[in-house]
Structures are given as C-alpha cells and as structure tokens.
Specification:
The protein is of the alpha/beta class. The protein is 44% helix and 20% strand. It is built from three helices and three strands. β1, α3 and β2 form a beta-alpha-beta unit. The longest helix has 25 residues. The protein is elongated, with a radius of gyration of 25 Å. The N and C termini lie far apart (69 Å).
Length: 94
C-alpha cells in the first residue's frame, strides 16, 4: 500500500479550511441583524450613580443618539438632573 505524503495533502486541506472560513464570514456579514444588537450600550458606574454626573452625561448622549442605554451602579444618591424625563434609560441598581 502506498502512503500519501503529507506535503501533497496539506495545501488542499488548508485551501478548504480558508474557503470555509471566508464563506462563513461572508454569510455572517450579510445576515440580517436587529437594531438592538447593533446599537446598545451598558454604562457601569463604580459608585453612586447620582454622584457621577459624567456617567449620566454619557448615558444621556448615547440615548440621544438612538442607543439602547442601560445605566448600572450603586443606588446611594439618585439625582437625575442630567438625564431628561423624555429619554428612557433603565437603571440597574446594585
């Protein structure tokens, strides 16, 4: 029985792997996606949310630019002067 040398099989196998990978990437790029997966952000505040005006400004800015925005942090002082009542920003208190 004759053995097939590895150096003659390897280029064909490598070609098939690369072709399969490129096909998978092309199909995953073309598939329809919903808007939530494309435009969502979670802002994690390492402290009281009310004492982090910069993070509230970030949340407001993302929400104004049509991002699904979640604000996560400690409850403590909950003053939301920055986040207007017209924007829906869910608050997740730790």
């Amino acid at each position: 029985m004759r053995e097939i040398p590895i150096h003659s099989v390897f280029p064909g196998v490598l070609f098939l792997l690369v072709l399969g990978f490129l096909t998978w990437k092309a199909l995953s790029f073309v598939r329809p996606r919903n808007q939530h997966t494309l435009r969502s952000v979670a802002i994690l505040v390492l402290g009281d949310i009310g004492r982090s005006p910069r993070m509230m400004y970030h949340a407001k800015s993302f929400a104004e630019n049509d991002f699904e925005t979640d604000l996560i942090g400690y409850g403590g002082v909950l003053s939301f002067q920055v986040v207007s009542s017209t924007l829906f920003i869910p608050l997740h208190v730790l």
